[in-house]
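Dear H.,

Thanks for agreeing to be a second pair of eyes. The structure we're designing against is below in token form, covering all 347 positions.
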């Protein structure tokens, strides 16, 4: 009897078991990194998979909500921060965290390749941009025709009485998109004129909803004729076949930057820096360009249907540090005037 042959399957089985145990142990030893985000759920999986493939010893644990909620949560946790990294959150929110002394300044690898205008101006930067997102009006042509509504060309058009009850907009305390609209109007026209405009617009608003995507989805579904939203969601809704036209108001578009920052209190600084490095990489920017017309890495963005060629030139003048510094005051004033039409918050 050949004992060598008969023991081979056993040896192979033991070897396979040992390998699977080792693989299991390696997975078990992965360092969890808690990342607060306002990224769209469609994007989160691609970033996580791409990063973990390049960094198999780290596991990204997302905590997701809309921008305003994430910002409020981070500020509420200031005395005992939980997050290691903030990624895919408005730069105006990260500028606020930086003003509160909550972010670690860090220049990721390859930072010099990125467009400097889309990151913090300090060196090393406290936050690094991923992409720009900007205001877009979703106009349901079928619904508008039924109601005899003309196509608006400007923000000022939306204040005309003909649009009464036809418009939905994001709530600026919950939604980064809602806040960038309000901040843009106040900066474009000055505060007295900006509030006067919002008073007139308020007359036509059916509801302020707690998401930047929802107004365009509602317009796409025909619930309302007009949804104030942002270009990524507008592009997606149009691509899905909804009878939606994208309008880029001629006065200029409010905008913000999705950005990444490291929490100063993270006990996993080395892993947090590796995530920041990866988020600044060409690979991550290529993922970003699936949705965004302007990304931080030059030459990576693709042409998106319905987004004009001169899109970058349509962006309004915007001081993100001013938006951050005045956020609390602006939201308090906004709430005092307009909270009555806010959508009920779901628990």
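And this is the sequence the design step returned. I haven't edited it by hand at all.
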């Amino acid at each position: 009897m050949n004992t060598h042959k008969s023991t081979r399957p056993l040896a192979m089985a033991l070897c396979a078991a040992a390998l699977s145990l080792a693989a299991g142990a390696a997975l078990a030893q992965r360092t969890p990194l808690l990342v607060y985000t306002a990224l769209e759920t469609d994007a989160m999986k691609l970033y996580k998979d791409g990063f973990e493939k390049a960094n198999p010893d780290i596991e990204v644990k997302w905590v997701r909500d809309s921008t305003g909620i994430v910002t409020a949560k981070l500020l509420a946790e200031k005395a005992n921060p939980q997050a290691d990294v903030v990624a895919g959150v408005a730069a105006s929110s990260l500028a606020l965290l930086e003003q509160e002394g909550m972010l670690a300044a860090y220049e990721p690898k390859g930072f010099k390749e990125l467009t400097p205008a889309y990151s913090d101006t300090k060196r090393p930067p406290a936050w690094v941009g991923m992409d720009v997102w900007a205001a877009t009006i979703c106009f349901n042509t079928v619904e508008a025709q039924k109601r005899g509504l003309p196509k608006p060309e400007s923000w000022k058009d939306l204040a005309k009485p003909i649009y009464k009850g036809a418009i939905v907009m994001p709530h600026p305390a919950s939604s980064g998109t809602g806040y960038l609209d309000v901040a843009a109007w106040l900066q474009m026209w000055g505060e007295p004129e900006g509030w006067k405009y919002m008073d007139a617009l308020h007359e036509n608003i059916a509801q302020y909803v707690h998401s930047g995507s929802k107004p365009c989805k509602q317009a796409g579904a025909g619930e309302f004729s007009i949804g104030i939203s942002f270009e990524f969601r507008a592009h997606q809704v149009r691509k899905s076949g909804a009878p939606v036209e994208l309008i880029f108001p001629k006065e200029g578009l409010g905008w913000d930057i999705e950005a990444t920052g490291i929490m100063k209190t993270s006990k996993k600084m080395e892993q947090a820096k590796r995530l920041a490095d990866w988020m600044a990489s060409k690979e991550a920017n290529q993922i970003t360009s699936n949705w965004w017309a302007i990304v931080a890495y030059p030459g990576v963005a693709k042409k998106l249907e319905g987004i004009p060629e001169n899109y970058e030139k349509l962006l309004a003048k915007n001081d993100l540090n001013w938006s951050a510094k005045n956020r609390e005051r602006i939201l308090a004033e906004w709430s005092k005037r307009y909270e009555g039409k806010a959508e009920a918050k779901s628990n």
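Two observations from my side: The two ends are 72 Å apart (CA to CA). Residues 1-6 have pLDDT under 50 and may be disordered.

Warmly,
E.
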